[in-house]
Every structure is written in C-alpha cells, then in structure tokens.
C-alpha cells in the first residue's frame, strides 16, 4: 500500500470573534510588512539646500517665531533630523557673528528677510540679499554682519548638527581702506 502525502496550505487560526491571525497581524509574507519604506532624509548638499528652500518658503512656519534682541543676535532651533539641525536667526542693524567656523559641520545659509554681508578669508565682502543661499564647508572661517539700517532674518541648516563653533576673537575679516587701497585684514 502506498501512502500519498498531500501538501495543503495551512488554514489561518480562527478566533471566536471571527478574526484570523492574518487579519490581526497582517500578511507575514507581504513585503511592506517585512520592510517598511524607509523615511526620506536629506543626505547630500543638494538635499540640505532643498530643505532650506522648503522651510524658507513656509513663512507661516517661521515668521511668527522671529524675535529681535537689542543686545545680541536672536536664534531658535526650528527642526532636527537624522544628521542635521535647522536654525532661525535674526539680526538687528550692526549685529554680527564675529569670525568663526562651524567645526566639522557644513552649512546652508539662506537670507529670509533684509540683507546680510558675509566676510571670508581671502576675499572681499559678499552682499547676501533676501533669497540668497550660501553653502559653507566645514572649517571655513567667515563672519556675517548686518551692516544695513534694516533688520534681517536668516535660516541655517547644519549637517551634521552643529556641535562646535570655533570663534576667532581678534581675527578681523572686515574690509578696510589702507593707504588708499582696499585690503582684507585677516
């Protein structure tokens, strides 16, 4: 006598309320159940610049938060994510950052309102009007100032998140006239 083995598909367990283990936990063989779609996070300079543009375009998000401080620049962290931070800063006329770098972090700076001036080593001042975006490499020494008569607001995305900002006290990056010629003093 030969015995035949029949392969059958297992029937899901039924519970008294009529539900099955598949209807409760989901189909264990379904791909989304095994590996949910990963969240999209910025990972390139272009992604971080796009993030800054998206946040900048959402005035309802940042504009009500802006404050001005007569003694120092005002700032607030708007967002953090895997490997980045987004900061909002305000600048009254005459306020500046002083010469500094961002340690091992890169940055994307976007001027949201007003105008700022960036001074860097090895070149003259760069006017940054509203809407201007700058990418700053790790270790780059620069200074940002509001040398206009109107307040300014800027957005800064640091990646990775800012853990170090090295000040360079006494390191002058302002352009001055020396004996009739422009000279960048560093």
UniProtKB/TrEMBL annotation:
It comes from the Bacteria. Signal peptide: none annotated. Keywords: Dioxygenase, Iron, Metal-binding, Oxidoreductase. It holds the Pfam family CDO_I. Fe cation binds at residues 100, 102, 142. GO terms for molecular function: ferrous iron binding; oxidoreductase activity, acting on single donors with incorporation of molecular oxygen, incorporation of two atoms of oxygen. PANTHER family: CYSTEINE DIOXYGENASE, CYSTEINE DIOXYGENASE TYPE 1. Belongs to the cysteine dioxygenase family. This is Cysteine dioxygenase type I.
């Amino acid at each position: 006598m030969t015995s035949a083995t029949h392969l059958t598909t297992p029937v899901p367990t039924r519970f008294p309320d009529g539900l099955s283990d598949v209807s409760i936990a989901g189909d264990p063989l379904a791909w989304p159940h095994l590996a949910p779609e990963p969240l999209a996070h910025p990972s390139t300079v272009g992604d971080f610049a796009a993030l800054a543009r998206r946040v900048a375009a959402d005035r309802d998000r940042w504009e009500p938060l802006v404050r001005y401080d007569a003694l120092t620049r005002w700032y607030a962290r708007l967002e953090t994510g895997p490997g980045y931070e987004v900061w909002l800063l305000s600048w009254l006329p005459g306020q500046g950052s002083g010469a500094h770098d961002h340690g091992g972090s890169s940055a994307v700076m976007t001027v949201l309102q007003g105008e700022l001036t960036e001074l860097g080593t090895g070149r003259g001042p760069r006017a940054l009007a509203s809407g201007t975006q700058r990418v700053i490499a790790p270790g780059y020494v620069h200074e940002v100032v509001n040398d206009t008569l109107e307040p300014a607001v800027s957005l800064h995305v640091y990646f990775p998140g800012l853990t170090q900002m090295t000040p360079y006290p006494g390191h002058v990056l302002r352009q001055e006239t020396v004996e009739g010629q422009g000279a960048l003093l560093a």
